[in-house]
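C-alpha cells incoming
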C-alpha cells in the first residue's frame, strides 16, 4: 500500500514526502502548472481531481456536497472513458452505496472508488482502490492522507510485460483472484495453490485489488467464443464465473 496526499493548496503538502499527490484541475482551488511541478519535480505521481461533472479533465471526480452528485457521476465517468482515461470516483465511505446505485441505475460499469472515512485507520475497504483516512487534524498539516493500492489502474502505468505471454493477477471486491491474459481475457484462480503456481511460472505478476468496474472490462475466458485456458497457463484451470 502507498500514501497519497491532497490539499486545496499545493504548497501545504510537503514536496517529496509522498509518492502520490492529488490536486484540483478545476473549481475555486484549481492548481496552477507550477503547483503541479512542485511535486512532480520531487518525484511524486500527480493525479487530478475534478469537482465539476462537466469538466472533461482529471482522473478523479469529487462526489460530495457542493461538488458533483451521485447522479452526475456516471456521465462524467463515461466522458472520461471516451477520452481514454480509466477514472476513479471519490466519495464518503457511507455515501458509496448511493453512488454505486447511480451507476447501476444508469447502466454504466462502475469505476474505481476512493472513499473517505477519517477514522485514522489506513485500511482499504473491499472493492475500493483507496481510502482517505486522515484529515488535517490527524495529519498535523493542511492536507489529507489516503492509503491506496500498490497498483491503481488509470493512475499507475500498466505493469511492464517481460514477453508476450505475461499477464497479471488481480483481486476482485469479493476477494476472488483472477488471472488476466495479455489478450485481455480473464479466468478465475481456483485455489491458493493455483495462485502460487501462476506466480512461480514467471508469466503472471500480481498487481493487487481492482474495482468491479475494472474487472468487468476483461471478459471471462471461454465466454463469447473466447476459447479456453491456453497451454502457457501451466495447467491451472480457469473458472468461468
Amino acid at each position: 500500500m502507498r500514501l497519497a496526499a491532497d490539499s486545496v493548496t499545493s504548497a501545504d503538502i510537503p514536496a517529496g514526502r509522498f509518492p502520490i499527490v492529488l490536486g484540483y484541475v478545476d473549481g475555486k482551488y484549481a492548481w496552477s502548472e507550477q503547483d503541479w511541478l512542485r511535486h512532480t519535480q520531487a518525484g511524486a505521481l500527480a493525479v487530478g481531481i475534478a469537482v465539476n461533472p462537466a469538466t472533461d479533465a482529471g482522473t478523479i471526480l469529487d462526489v460530495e456536497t457542493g461538488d458533483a452528485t451521485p447522479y452526475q457521476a456516471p456521465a462524467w465517468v463515461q466522458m472520461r472513458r471516451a477520452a481514454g482515461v480509466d477514472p476513479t470516483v471519490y466519495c464518503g465511505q457511507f455515501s458509496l452505496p448511493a453512488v454505486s446505485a447511480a451507476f447501476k441505475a444508469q447502466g454504466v460499469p462502475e469505476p474505481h472508488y476512493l472513499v473517505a472515512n477519517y477514522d485514522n485507520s489506513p485500511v482499504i475497504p473491499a472493492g475500493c482502490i483507496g481510502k482517505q483516512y486522515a484529515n488535517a487534524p490527524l495529519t498535523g498539516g493542511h492536507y489529507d492522507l489516503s492509503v491506496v493500492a500498490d497498483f491503481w489502474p488509470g493512475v499507475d502505468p500498466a505493469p511492464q510485460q517481460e514477453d508476450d505471454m505475461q499477464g497479471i493477477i488481480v483481486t476482485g471486491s469479493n476477494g476472488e483472484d483472477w488471472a488476466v491474459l495479455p489478450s485481455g481475457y480473464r479466468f478465475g484462480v481456483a485455489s491458493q495453490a493455483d495462485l502460487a503456481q501462476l506466480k512461480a511460472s514467471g508469466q503472471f505478476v500480481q498487481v493487487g485489488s481492482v474495482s468491479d468496474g475494472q474487472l468487468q472490462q476483461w471478459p471471462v475466458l471461454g465466454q463469447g467464443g473466447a476459447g479456453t485456458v491456453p497451454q502457457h497457463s501451466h495447467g491451472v484451470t480457469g473458472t468461468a464465473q
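note: Residues 2-148 form a domain with the TIM Barrel fold (CATH 3.20.20.80).
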